[in-house]
Amino acid sequence: MQTKSLFISAGHSASDPGAVGNGYTEAAIVLEFRDYLAEALRARGIEFSKDGGRGENLPLSRAWRMAADHDIAVEFHCNAFSRPSATGVETLSHPEHMELGRAICTAISDTLGIVNRGAKGEGSGQHSRLAFVSSGGGIIVELFFISNPDDVAKYQRWKLQLAEVLADLLAEEVRNA
Ligand SMILES: [Zn+2]
């Protein structure tokens, strides 16, 4: 029995490709991952909304409004930094979603074998879509550093497994009373 509504979002699109690194755009990674996660959620019978059809990403102004209409809203991004050694996963959210943020960070860190940078507040780090948190009450997930070749390689190796792991975690979250 599902007790909470769920929204999943890709943070970028062809018109707003985000960071670039190691042969990938952030848009290509997060659109693909959102769609993998959608398939894994459907396989578990979870109801959810997402920010556009396969390969499509609605503008932030639509995404944060949709986020605000759901109990749980998660948007995927990649981190980037000038030093290629910067590594790891982190989330940004309001305090009430820190616990889920920590669980998401642990799941991603364990699955990809990268550093767990932890669940942080909306003011942390370098991010361009904070309205998703500040106005939408959502959780921004910075999956890994697109500027780090090792992070990118681990993600590409484990991305399908990661979609299954996060689908399990989110399914449990939305079924919890
Ligand atoms: Zn981004």
UniProtKB/TrEMBL annotation:
Enzyme nomenclature, EC number: 3.5.1.28
Gene3D superfamilies membership: Zn-dependent exopeptidases
**SMART domains this protein is in?**
Ami_3
Domain of life per record: Bacteria
Ranges of residues in domain MurNAc-LAA: 68-171
Question: In this record, what's one Pfam family?
Answer: Amidase_3
Which key words tag this protein in UniProt?
A: Hydrolase
InterPro entries reported for this sequence? MurNAc-LAA_cat, N-acetylmuramoyl_amidase_3
Q: Which reaction does it catalyse?
A: Hydrolyzes the link between N-acetylmuramoyl residues and L-amino acid residues in certain cell-wall glycopeptides
| Keyword set includes Transmembrane helix | no
Presence of keyword DNA damage: no
What is the recorded name of this protein? N-acetylmuramoyl-L-alanine amidase
